[in-house]
Amino acid sequence: MNLKEKLYSKVSSYNEPVSEQDIKLFEQRHHILLPQELVMFYTNICNECKIQDGSEIKKLEEWGIAPSYINKDFPFDDFWIWENDESYDEGKLQETLFGNIELVDIGDCQTWNIIVQGKKKGEMWFFTDVGIQPCVPPKGMLEWIEGWLDEDNEYFGLE
User: Which of 33, 46, 88, 100 qualifies as a FRET site for 19, CA 20 to 30 Å off?
Assistant: First the structure.
């Protein structure tokens, strides 16, 4: 079963894909090129979907982005728990807004974001109110979605 069939069989609802023109307009408006897997998902699979547990991948129109931050490089290479960081400062915290798009809000101040600018472009990262964490090993959007659908919740190399 391919990813599209698997997704359609497991989600409670989904919207039809967006056009490539919609993606191009977004990219032009924000002066970026989106990761290929993100473009492929939104133009070939769907523009938002809801899974039975209540989680959802947001519509293109619902991406909460800060225009002045989206085209800056995401500066992080590894996890950062600012709650435990003695060198924490507001400037570094603000940098967590750079070059990423929140795709899934799972509640309790936890989101899954895709990095769209910088060295980690195309990777899925976990954001919370106390820190950020990449998938270990790194996962692109499509691999992450497949794990999400299979309820494979092992994203942080803790096996």
Answer: 100
